[in-house]
Amino acid sequence: MNAALEHADGLARCPWAKLDPLYIAYHDEEWGVPEFDDRALYEKLILDGFQAGLSWITILRKRENFRRAFDGFAPEKVARYTPKKVERLMQDAGIVRNRMKIEGAVLSARGWLEVMDKGPGFSRLLWDFVDGRPKINNFRSTRQIPAETAVSRKISKNLASRGFKFCGPTIVYAFMQAVGMVNDHLVTCHRHPAYAKLAKKR
């Protein structure tokens, strides 16, 4: 299914939201909303990294567990995680227990601190790649939506050079969609015009 899906409430939504109430709420209230908070952007990038090889609904269902396990995704705390803490996380059944991804979250937190301390700030760094305003796409089918773009490749390369992990071009593009750097709601989805208006206000 590639076109917007009409739901029982009469609203058309991107087909990936399906009929799961948690997914629908995420689609309607979060996905594509421009996010400019430095810490929130770190959290989302890390969760998108944990999603690699899995479905987003799997991560969404575990998100509160992740927040508990990772101290609310406070980079200042995550950056100081010891090997002993990593081992404890590997025993936590509430999260995705992948050692490379857990260790990657720690290294990315250190990269985040570096950007905040000596760079432009994490939000500024990311949003400057799209001139500070969301790019509005007008896709009619999910088949038209790319897996990565030239911009996501540039961001990926920049983040990797700063020590961030699990930030390949595809992960970065999914991240860009989620945090509203691009509006990839289908034009027939009821959220597309609302987010397009938000972008114009920037």
Commentary on this structure:
The protein has 202 residues and is mainly α. Helices cover 53% and strands 4% of the residues. It contains ten helices and four strands, in the order ββαααααααβααβα. The chain has helices at 21-29, 38-51, 56-69, 75-78, 83-90, 99-118, 122-127, 150-161, 169-178, 192-201, and strands at 5-6, 12-13, 135-136, 182-183. The strands form two sheets. Strands 1-2 form a two-stranded antiparallel ribbon. The protein has a two-stranded parallel sheet with strand order 3-4. Strand 1 (5-6) and strand 2 (12-13) form a beta hairpin. Helix 2 (38-51) crosses helix 3 (56-69) and helix 2 packs across helix 9 (169-178). The model has no long low-confidence stretch (mean pLDDT 95).
